[in-house]
Amino acid sequence: LKNFIGANTTQQQQNQQMNQQVHSNLEPTPEFKEFFLNPSLVTLLFKCYELVRDDRDMSHAAIQPLVQLSTLTGPIFNEDNDSLLLRVNFLTHFMQTFLNTFAKLQLKSYESFNLACLVENMMSQGNLKKLVCLPLNLVETFFNFTCSFLVTCFKAESYYSSVASGGGDDDDAAADGSKYLESYEKILIAW
After folding, report:
1. DSSP-based three-state secondary structure for 126
2. CA dist., res. 74 & res. 83, Å (int)
3. Which of 21, 92, 142, 144 is most exposed by smallest CB count within 10 Å?
4. Are 115 and 70 in contact (CB under 8 A)?
C-alpha cells in the first residue's frame, strides 16, 4: 500500500514535493463543485490522516490531499452570487475539523512541517473579509492553536539544537530541530 500511494520517497523528497504543492492552489472546474464543497470529504480526509499518522511515510502521503484541499479556490466559487458564503462555509468546516483533529494529538516532529503548511494555507485563504464572517470563537481557537504550535516549534527547535550541540545523537537531533525551525518560520511568514 505504501508503494501504491507513493509513500516510499525520502523525507527530503517529500518536503520538496510539499513546497511545490504549497505554492499552487487547487482550482477545480465548476463540475467538481459538489464533490469538493461536500463537508464529508474534509471529514474523511482528516479521519484517514488520524488513522495513519503514527507511520511517518503514510502520514505524509495522507496529509498531502489536506494540504492541497486547504488551497481550494477558483471557478467553483465564482459561479454563484453566494461565493463568499460558500468560501466561508468551506473554511469554517475545514478549520473546525482541523482543530478537532490536531488539538487532541501530541505533535510528532515529522508532521510539524505539514501542519505548518495547513496553517499557512488556512491563513492565506482566510483573508480579513472571510475571517470576519467566521464564528468568533472559531477564529480565536484557531489563533490560540497557532500560537501554541509556534511556541511548541520554538521550544522543540531549541531543545534539539542543544541536544545536537551537546554531543548527543547529532544527526537525528539536528534533523528534528530543523523540521521544527522550518515549521516555525513558515507560520511566522504567513502571519
Report:
1. coil
2. 10
3. 144
4. no
Among residues 87, 102, 94, 97, the alpha carbon closest in space to that of 132 is found at 87
C-alpha to C-alpha distance for 89 and 66, rounded to whole angstroms: 16
pLDDT digits (tens, 9 = 90+) for 131-177: 788 999 999 999 999 888 888 888 877 776 676 666 555 566 556 66
Contacts of 142 (CB under 8 A, 6+ apart): 95, 98, 99, 122
What confidence score (pLDDT) does residue 132 get? 82
In the predicted model, what is the mean pLDDT of the chain? 79
Distances (CA, A) of 35 to 16, 91, 102, 103, 114: 28, 15, 24, 27, 24
DSSP string for residues in 159-185: HHHHHHHTTSSHHHHHHHHHHHHHHHH
Concatenated DSSP letters for 56-118?
Answer: HHHHHHHHHHHHHHTT--SHHHHSSTTHHHHHHHHHHHHHHHHHHHHTTS---GGGHHHHHHH
CB atoms within 10 A of CB 13: 12
Q: Residues 91-132: pLDDT tens digits?
A: 999 999 999 999 888 888 788 889 989 998 888 876 667 778
Cell (9 digits) for 190: 504567513
SS3 133: coil
